[in-house]
Amino acid sequence: MKTLLLMSAIASSFALTMAEPAQARGGDRERPAFSELDANSDGEVSQEELVTFRTAKAAERFEAADINGDGALSAEEIAARGEREASERSTRRANKMIERLDANEDGLLQQAEITVRMNSNDRMTERFTEADTDGSGGLSEAEMEEMKGDRGGRGGKRGGKRGDSN
Description:
- The chain is mainly α.
- It folds into two domains: 2-106, no CATH class; 121-150, no CATH class.
- Helix content is 60%, strand content 0%.
- The protein contains eight helices and no strands.
- It is elongated.
- The chain starts with a helix and ends in a 16-residue tail after the last helix.
């Protein structure tokens, strides 16, 4: 039974950690400290130490997701885990946004604080100046279309459309 549980944990680590590499590149999951990975404190992290660490973390996540404790994950348990993580991520992002924009430091965002930030964006000014190709101080319809086209037609900050590999 113990072997079966361990094998389930290892197998499920693939399903539960598929997004981990993307998150580690800039997502919300924090990278472990070097000392957490270097189990024998020899100043290097071996592949075995890395596998051991990842397996333990996957087992923790599996156990947390296994709401009824039966050693298996149902679609409902997996979905519930995803919803919890999405909610936590959303809350962290909202808190960061409030930290960044809350000019009066009351812990809340008023419309004026958002509007001031939105209209004082240096990047917006730079983009406007770039788009004003004729130097008139305003944007013609053609210049607006060109600016929109430069952003993949969706106005996103990454350029390209969702799903593009740009």
